[in-house]
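New to this. Help decode both lines:
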Amino acid sequence: MDESGVKEATTQSGVDDDRIKDLKAFDDTKAGVKGLIDAGVASLPRIFIRPPDELVEELNLGYSQAELPVLDLSGIETDDQRKSIVDELRQVSEEWGFFQVVNHGIPSSVLDGMIDGTCKFHEQDAELKKEYYSRDQFQKVRYESNIDLYRSRVANWRDTMTINLLYSNEVVPDELPEICRSSAMDYINHITKLAETLFELLSEALGIKVDNLRAMECARGRTFVCHYYPACPEPDLTLGVSRHTDPAFLTILLQDHIGGLQFLHDNNWTDVPPIPGGLVVNIADLLQIVSNDKFKSREHRVIANRIGPRISVACFLIGVAVPEKIYYPAKELISDETPPVYREFTVGEYMSNFFSRPIDKSGLDHFKI
């Protein structure tokens, strides 16, 4: 990070010079949180400790035992079953914004392979990982700890390998790390097909033409973030991921058996328990905008845990990464009774807004009329 970047981070986050030095020292190791564990840390470095006001605010939120809806996609080829699935999808997208899908057509061997490949990448020799360490958002494959490290108030307890397919629709195998190349290729291909199916179903659930969201190329821009959450010595003082909404149309998440993902439902944190063979799907900000607030993007987070590592792989369906591309609420959903909630904006403005704020600050209000 250059000097201007440090000054910008200090201004945006309101952090002191000592914190900036600590952040940079951690970043310069290129070893991530895994490196801290390997070094034998028994307590959290201060950059990971949540501020007191955030911990107090936690007391205002409750916990819910509500069961997350599970959508069974088997039988979508038949008209009656498809209608039932679409009706259920409409309800969960409006009321929950989060759900799980089963019988989605992706073999368990592909899911298990992606979890295993992600783990192997993060647990390989540190010097091999460092070859991919970067904060260049345009790099196709990069490894880093905390995308918003210099913008956030507190660092999260996780490392991430990112596969960026925003600017290229093709995956060249040689660009992927050899240790997880085959499993990642299989997973990317299967998730891309599932995403196209989900966007068709979501179009029907919105009451617009079945190919409308596909025509918007919602599934074209994809980013895969492969998270590694080491066991944490003091999990009550930090988070795996701070509360946030996703800057995409849709997120499809693969998680291992450990759990830790929670989302806000009726002002209560609700667990998203792992289901063998299941995938978590959540409505993201761009789809809330396009649906004119009909479908809801919910805040969510990942808690830290004394056991680990926890592995998860999120696929963000971001759409077309062309700066001049314009997004706005679907015209079919606008009427005198339901005027637009959001203004038109470009992809360039949207991405600039995202990369200028911590992930725990929503960008939706910036685009409201």
Observations:
- Residues 10-367 form a domain with the Jelly Rolls fold (CATH 2.60.120.330).
- The CA atoms of residues 22 and 33 lie 13 Å apart.
- Residues 1-14 have pLDDT under 50 and may be disordered.
